[in-house]
Each structure stands twice: as structure tokens, then as C-alpha cells.
Write a structure and sequence with these properties.
The complex is a heterodimer of chains A (391) and B (488).
Chain A: H1 4-31, H2 48-59, E1 74-83, H3 88-95, H4 101-132, H5 138-165, H6 172-186, H7 193-198, H8 207-214, E2 218-219, H9 227-241, E3 244-253, H10 255-258, H11 300-308, H12 310-313, E4 326-330, E5 343-344, E6 347-348, E7 353-357, H13 359-370, H14 387-390
Antiparallel strand pairs in A: 1-2, 1-3, 4-7, 5-6
Helix pairs in contact in A: 2-13, 3-9, 4-5, 4-6, 6-8
Chain B: H1 14-51, H2 64-96, H3 103-125, H4 139-161, H5 170-195, H6 203-235, H7 242-255, H8 269-296, H9 308-329, H10 333-339, H11 344-373, H12 382-415, H13 421-462, H14 467-487
Classes of the chains: A mainly alpha (391), B mainly alpha (488).
Chain lengths: 391, 488
């Protein structure tokens, strides 16, 4: 280590390692990041006032006292089965012991729907074959007869199952709920009015029942299951049973979600369209990761009053007033203040004057409203059940 | 192959070297002292706003964010740049045994550098900062700084190559490291964060790399070069181990840019994990440097020494070790998760900046400045500089204890459920209110240091006509008058 050129090269090399890891690597990885959310929508850039507001946020150094980073937490999975596959045996095998008696009966009923629809389709096919045939052979007529019998047996079986499933309830609404949940879970669609009437669904499915069917799910796990606990079941449902399901993260211990700071963890795509990414230094003031989704920004007047004089909203607030983001206009007796003048309890904030937000204040408001933790594929919204829901 | 002894130019005497460095380096030192005062005043003004939110609140460029950014830029580039480059030139000249080459370039570079820092402060004041906390150089300021540094580095390179030497002392490695690191870091930040910013979230790791590299690598190299130079020199011993020094140097360069990334950053997991890994490895840097210097100064009480430079360097070394241990603690994500959005990060930055770097630089300036001005000259009021040491030391201890200890409570409250906003605000502000005391001490110490430097310069320029000499004469005359009066 006695030659400066070697030290110079060594310094270049060692520095280049961290440069590669912290500068080149992330820059090249994130440069190709897509805005596509995978459901036909995209993470949109800010436009107009909201875009200008980002600059107001930067100029004023708001990022020193506010962060925009919602951190992760502990969560479990709720495995929500929304549609059954075709094979009952495989489904039972995959679900194993992880299912309640009530849900087993619901699945029984859902499969009865599948059997009835399958029998009906067989009958329709047999009838069509008979009708299309130039000559009505005994085989064709037998096939129709067998299909009719099968449908009849399926309908009988369906009635037995539904009477078992609903034996403990006398309330018709509850019975309908069970029926249409099972219908939804079965994934079949019944259009034949006679069959619908036969199965107790009515001549036409009313909106309320359709909603029940569409939203029908069975919670296979409570929200505390970890991936290792359910991995086999998830793979089985997907690859063997052909079922449709959703893995919903549920809060176990996640302060930012439980405190209403955000709906999920912040990820890189929350910053992808930022001209200046400002994740924040300190949480001296509120975390703004989901500012646009909080009630604090629902009322623009309330926000502007807070910005103009925070201690009018909270007398112990440590936030400095940003009066220079407002114009103060004299209002003569008899004149009314402009519509956008700041009000407190219905009156002008400063008697005899109208306090009007400047374009910078409006831009800042729009920027803060644009900060949201909406669902992204890589960061789904986390369920935060209230304590009562747990029990 | 070693150089034949005949090829080595004769070593310049310390007097020759000091004479060659006199005005360029003193210009850098004086600029550093001025910026230190500015940084401390702006920092205190920012902190006042936490006590009194209404304080100067109608002036748009005096928000807490503006003041924090300005205070740090004034410290980092104003004080850090000037003091660091000044000591670099002097140490390099002494270590190479050659007079400073092309001092005119240094003066031109210093002017440019200070113009750059001024432009940065004006730019931030006007709202041109780039939004990267810790490195908020407006695009135009970065360019001027780079040109200024190039001028000064040119002189340093010529000085280095003006005399061949058998062996490079470890401080030289660190000085070369600092000279290379600065343009690379500022250039990257200028290019990827200001001139042609990378996309969205990629700015977060780029900004982190730049800010942490400036701190750990640039300031770290400058400060450690001074510590490694002055401690053995003053106690009159050889450095314990060149191998340990080399290991510490390369590990610092290797890891400096990776460390201290927040575990909650909205970034790919691999980056956060790599940073945690680097935090863990950083313990080896601490051990290598700390152990080497501990063995070198074995039995010598650095903080208890009568030599003020040694005290400065001892405190700087201690602060660097403590700061390094805090960096190591970030290997535990649970630790970092609690402190990441609290005042602790700022407090630890103060520990590094004031406790380590400023102490090392001020200690170095304390040693070098009188020698630059004349061999028979000493600080006019040596005791006042002791107060600089004491005040900064107490300030650093207050800020570190309050910043980390009380911020821990804030961090824990952030991790709890249902803590109301006012409680969180109180827990967030309390450490900053205590730390305010430390910032006031920094401000007072910076004034004392600037005053002392002015007195030293005036003594050099005016001799017995300097203000301090005149003051002493007046005081002595008064004392004599009193004595005569008493006798009568």
C-alpha cells in the first residue's frame, strides 16, 4: 500500500461495489417497473395541481416532519374459497379436517347444484340428440329416459340435502341465504325457470339473492394462519381441486394499519411517478402515506384552517402556521367574503377579512389527497377486523 | 521494486511546508470556522421552531425544513469541506515531505467551493433543494462545488507526486480515499438526483447511498486521517499496526455506502437485507480502527491529556467508535424499526458530525493553525479553545443521550396501537427539546472558535497592535494603576 495509483484504483473498486448495489442495481431494477396493476388499471401519475403540490411539499421541506412510508407488520392469511372445483373427493381430500360442519353442509349443497346442473345438461343433450336424429332409435330414447331419471334423482337428492342443511332454521331469509350462498359457491349458472322453481330459487333471481351468490365465500382459515400452515391446502385447491379462492392478509400486529395510518405497507410503486421521492425523515407530524384516504382531508376548509393556523384545530399542535400560503383580503361591511374564504364555525376565520388559499395551498391539498395506499398486486389491502369480529 | 534512495527528492523542512501552506490552508480554515458558526446558528434557529412554532413562521424560507437543510449543507460542505480539504493539504504536504504545490489553485478552488456552498444555501432558501434529506444541493451548486474541489485536488495531486517517498503512512490512504470519494458521491447525486433524476423510488436508495457515503466514507476518511495522524504524532509512538489500519480502511470504503438503510424503506427486500448485512460487518471496521489506536495509545489517557489536540482526537475517536456501534446495532431489524422515523437518526448524525468529525477537524486546526502562521506563535487565549472542546463534548453527550434514549420512547409509541396523536407528538418533540441545549452549546463553541481564530490571525498580522494584545496591555495598565493606588 505504498503506491497512490494502486490505492486510487482500490478506492474506485471498493466504492463501485456499494455504488453498484445501492445506485446502479436499484436504478436499473426500478427503471423497468411497470405501472400496470394487472387488472386493466394502472398506477397513474399525478397531474395538474397535485403534481404542482409535490413541489410545494418539497420546497417547504415538509418531508422533515412527515413521512410517507407505511411500514410492514405481522399478519396471517384468511383463505377464502369463492368457487368449488368439479371433483368432490379431491376437494374433500384437500380441505381435510380444516372445515366446520356448517361449511361441509354448504359444500354438500353446492355440489348438489353441480349435480343437478350436470344432470340437466345431460338430459338437454339427450333430448337434442333425439330431436336431431333422423330416426328415433331405442338407444336414444333410453338415453333420454336415463337422463330424466338422473335429473329426477338429483333433484330428490338436492331436496334431501337442503332440508338437512336448513333443518335448524325456520326463517325463510336464512334459508334463502344458505341456498344462494351454495349456489354462488357451486359456480354454476341456472337459467331454466322450471328447474329454478324446482330447486326453490324462484322464477327469477332477485338482486338481493344474486348479491348473496356473488359474494359467497367460505373462510377456510382464520386470519392467523401462516403460509407454512396452509401452503399444501393452497396448492391443492389450485392445482388439484380447481377451486377459486383468495388469500386475504389479516392483521395480527401491524401498528400502521391498526392505527389507521395506511391500508397496507408502502412499496416502491407508491413513489414510481414522483419527481422527487420523499419518504420522509421523522414522524414529528402524522404519517401521510394514506393522507388522501383519511377523513382529515375530506373537508378542504378544515385542512386549510389547519394549515393556516394549526392551533385553531388543536391548541397544542407543534406544527407551525403556513400563513404565507394564503392571501388576506379586506371585506368591507355589507360585502360577502368569497366562497373559498376560510371559515370556522360558519364565520370568516378573521373578522373583517377573507383568508383565501393561494394556488400553492390548493396544490398542496391536491397532492396530499393523491397520497393513497390503494390495493396493488404486490401489496394487497390488509384486513383489519375490529376486536368484536375476532370473537 | 523499491525506489533507489537517490531518486527521492530531499525532504522539505516543516517550516518550508508550513510557509507554503500558510495562506491557502488558513483561508480554508477561516472559511470553515465561518461556516461552522453559520451552520450552528441556522441549526439553533430551526430548533427554536420546535419550542415556538410561531417563531418567524410568516417567512416562507424559514420553515423547519429549510433551516434543517441549510444547517446541514453549511456544516457538511461549508465546515466539513473547508476544514477537511485544509487539513488534507497540510497533512499530505507533511506526510510527503514536500511543500504545497500550486497554492494559487487552492485559493481559487476555495473561492469556488465557498461560492458553491453559498449558492447551495441561497438555492435551498429559494426552494430549489432536491428533496433528498441530507444532501439537498441544488443542481447549480453541485457543479460549482465539483469544480472547486477539482482545483484543490489538483494541488493535492501535484503535492503528492512532487516527492517520492518510500512508504505511505495510513493517513495518506484515507486522504486519497476522501479526495476520490467526494467527486464520485457528489457527482452521482448531481447526476442521478438533480440533473437527470432517476425514476421515483430509485431515488431513495441513490439518495441514501449518497448521504451515507458522504458521512461514513468522505467525512469518515477525513476524520480518521486526522485521528491516525495526530494521536501517534503527539504521543510520539509508531502506529501499532499497518495491517489493522489497512483492513479498517478497505472495510470502511467497502461498507460505508451500504449501511444504515431503514428497515421500513419502501424498497426491494434484497437491498434492505444487504444493508443489514453491511451493518453487521461494520463491527470489523470499528474493531480494526479502534483496537489499532487503542494499542497505539496504550497507557496514555487521551481525554485526560493536557494536550488539547490529543483531547480533541481522543473524543473524536470515541465518538466514531460509539457511532460505529450504533451502526452495527442496525443489523437488528427490531432495533432499526423502532428508531427509524424518530429523532435518533438526526442525533446520531450529530454524534458523527460534531462528536467525531468536528472534534477531529478542530483538534487538527488547533494544532496546525499556529504552526502555519509562525513557529513562535500560539493561540492568544489557549483556554478559550478548551471551552470549544468542553462545550462540543457536553453538547454531543446531551444530544446522543436525549436523541437515542428519548427517541426510543417515541419509536415504541409508534409501534403501539391506539396511542393518540398528541402523545406521539410530545414523545417526538421531547428529545428534540433536550437536544436544543446541545445545539446551543455547539453555537457558543463555534463562536468561541471563530473568535479564537480571529485573534490568532490578528496577532499574526498586527503583533502587539492586535486587539488581544491591546486588551492585555489595557488590562495590565489598569492593574498597575490599581496597585499604585492601593500602595498610596
Amino acid at each position: 500500500m505504498n503506491k497512490a495509483p494502486w490505492i486510487f484504483l482500490g478506492v474506485l473498486f471498493t466504492l463501485s461495489l456499494s455504488w453498484w448495489g445501492m445506485v446502479y442495481g436499484p436504478a436499473s431494477q426500478l427503471a423497468g417497473q411497470s405501472a400496470d396493476k394487472g387488472d386493466g388499471t394502472a398506477v397513474l401519475p399525478r397531474v395538474g395541481l397535485a403534481k404542482q403540490g409535490e413541489q410545494v411539499y418539497r420546497e417547504n421541506g415538509c418531508y422533515y416532519c412527515h413521512t410517507r412510508t407505511a411500514t410492514g407488520g405481522e399478519f396471517g392469511y384468511e383463505l377464502r374459497l369463492s368457487q368449488l372445483g368439479g371433483d368432490r373427493e379431491v376437494t374433500d381430500e384437500v380441505l381435510g379436517e380444516n372445515i366446520t360442519v356448517e361449511n361441509t353442509r354448504l359444500i354438500d349443497l353446492a355440489f348438489e347444484f353441480k349435480y343437478v346442473v350436470a344432470a340437466k345438461k345431460t338430459l338437454d343433450d339427450a333430448n337434442k340428440a333425439l330431436a336431431d336424429a333422423k330416426e328415433k332409435t331405442p338407444e336414444l330414447e333410453d338415453a333420454v329416459a336415463v337422463a330424466e331419471k338422473s335429473l329426477k334423482n338429483s333433484a330428490v337428492s338436492f331436496k334431501e340435502v337442503i332440508s338437512n342443511v336448513t333443518e335448524k332454521t325456520t326463517d325463510q331469509n336464512e334459508k334463502d341465504t344458505i341456498l344462494f350462498r351454495a349456489y354462488g359457491l357451486s359456480g354454476v349458472e341456472i337459467k331454466d325457470k322450471a328447474l329454478m322453481i324446482q330447486l326453490g330459487m324462484g322464477e327469477q333471481i332477485i338482486d338481493e339473492h344474486r348479491k348473496i351468490a356473488n359474494e359467497a365465500i367460505i373462510k377456510l382459515t382464520h386470519g392467523k394462519a401462516q403460509w407454512g400452515d396452509i401452503e399444501d391446502m393452497v396448492r391443492g385447491l389450485k392445482t388439484r381441486a380447481g377451486a377459486q379462492f383468495k388469500l386475504q392478509p389479516v392483521v395480527i400486529d401491524w401498528p400502521d394499519v391498526q392505527n389507521g395510518v395506511a391500508l397496507r405497507q408502502s412499496v416502491t410503486r407508491d413513489f414510481m411517478h414522483d419527481t422527487h421521492a420523499m419518504p420522509g425523515v421523522m414522524q414529528l407530524g402524522p404519517n401521510l402515506a394514506n393522507a388522501g384516504g383519511t377523513p382529515a382531508l375530506a373537508d378542504s376548509n378544515q385542512f386549510y384552517v389547519h394549515l393556516y393556523q394549526p392551533r385553531l384545530i388543536n391548541e397544542k399542535s407543534a406544527m407551525p402556521p403556513y400563513r404565507y400560503l394564503f392571501r388576506k383580503i379586506k371585506v368591507n361591511a355589507g360585502e360577502t367574503s368569497p366562497k373559498n374564504a376560510l371559515k370556522i364555525k360558519g364565520k370568516d376565520l378573521v373578522a373583517g377579512y377573507a383568508i383565501i388559499p393561494t394556488e400553492k395551498a390548493e396544490a398542496l391539498f391536491e397532492f396530499l389527497k393523491s397520497l393513497r395506499t390503494d390495493a396493488l398486486p404486490e401489496a394487497p389491502i390488509v384486513d383489519n377486523p375490529k376486536p368484536a369480529d375476532d370473537q | 521494486m523499491s525506489e533507489p534512495i537517490d531518486n527521492i527528492a530531499p525532504e522539505a523542512t516543516p517550516e518550508e511546508i508550513n510557509a507554503s501552506c500558510r495562506w491557502p490552508v488558513m483561508f480554508l480554515f477561516f472559511s470553515a470556522a465561518l461556516w461552522l458558526v453559520k451552520a450552528a446558528i441556522i441549526g439553533v434557529m430551526g430548533s427554536v421552531k420546535l419550542h415556538m412554532p410561531e417563531f418567524l413562521s410568516d417567512i416562507s424560507f424559514l420553515t423547519y425544513g429549510h433551516l434543517q437543510a441549510n444547517a446541514w449543507v453549511a456544516f457538511l460542505f461549508g465546515f466539513g469541506g473547508n476544514a477537511g480539504l485544509g487539513l488534507t493539504l497540510w497533512m499530505l504536504s507533511r506526510l510527503r515531505g514536500a511543500p504545497l504545490a500550486r497554492p494559487g489553485f487552492v485559493i481559487a478552488g476555495t473561492v469556488l467551493w465557498n461560492v458553491g456552498v453559498t449558492a447551495a444555501l441561497v438555492g435551498i432558501t429559494l426552494g430549489d433543494q432536491n428533496g433528498v434529506a441530507g444532501l439537498e444541493l441544488p443542481v447549480y451548486a453541485g457543479r460549482v462545488l465539483l469544480i472547486g474541489q477539482a482545483f484543490i485536488a489538483f494541488s493535492a495531486i501535484l503535492t503528492y507526486f512532487s516527492r517520492r517517498h518510500k512508504q505511505l503512512y495510513p493517513s495518506t490512504w484515507y486522504l486519497i480515499g476522501a479526495l476520490v470519494a467526494l467527486p464520485w458521491i457528489v457527482g452521482t447525486a448531481h447526476w442521478l438526483l438533480a440533473a437527470a433524476p432517476v425514476r421515483g423510488a430509485a431515488q431513495i436508495p441513490v439518495g441514501h447511498w449518497a448521504t451515507t457515503s458522504l458521512l461514513q466514507v468522505w467525512l469518515g476518511c477525513l476524520g480518521l486521517a486526522a485521528v491516525l495522524y495526530f494521536i501517534p504524532k503527539i504521543i510520539g509512538r509508531e502506529l501499532f499496526s499497518r495491517q489493522w489500519a489497512a483492513f479498517g480502511f478497505w472495510m470502511l470504503l467497502l461498507l460505508g455506502g451500504w449501511v444504515n438503510l431503514n428497515s421500513g424503506s419502501p424498497l426491494p427486500v434484497w437491498q434492505i437485507k444487504l444493508s443489514q448485512f453491511a451493518n453487521g460487518l461494520f463491527i470489523f471496521v470499528v474493531i480494526a480502527v479502534g483496537w489499532n489506536l487503542r494499542q497505539t495509545a496504550r497507557g496514555v489517557p487521551l481525554l485526560g491529556s493536557e494536550n488539547l489536540t490529543l483531547k480533541f482526537m481522543g473524543f473524536a475517536l470515541g465518538a466514531w467508535v460509539v457511532s460505529g456501534l450504533f451502526t452495527f446495532c442496525n443489523v437488528f431489524p427490531e432495533w432499526n424499526a423502532i428508531l427509524q422515523f424518530t429523532y435518533a437518526n438526526t442525533a446520531l448524525r450529530h454524534l458523527f458530525a460534531w462528536g467525531f468529525f468536528a472534534m477531529a477537524m478542530l483538534g487538527g486546526i488547533y494544532y496546525v493553525a499556529p504552526r502555519l502562521l509562525g513557529s513562535d506563535l500560539d493561540w492568544p487565549c489557549g483556554r478559550t479553545v478548551r471551552w470549544v472542546y468542553r462545550l462540543i463534548a457536553v453538547g454531543v453527550i446531551i444530544i446522543t443521550l436525549a436523541g437515542v434514549g428519548m427517541a426510543w420512547g417515541h419509536g415504541q409509541a409508534l409501534q403501539q396501537i391506539g396511542v393518540d396523536a398528541m402523545t406521539l407528538q410530545t414523545k417526538a418533540i421531547n428529545p428534540m427539546r433536550i437536544a436544543f441545549l446541545g445545539e446551543i452549546l455547539f453555537m457558543v463553541s463555534s463562536f468561541i472558535f471563530l473568535g479564537s481564530l480571529l485573534c490568532l490571525l490578528s496577532r499574526n498580522c498586527c503583533g502587539e497592535l492586535s486587539p488581544m494584545a491591546l486588551w492585555r496591555q489595557i488590562r495590565e495598565a489598569k492593574m498597575e494603576g490599581k496597585t499604585e493606588g492601593g500602595a498610596q
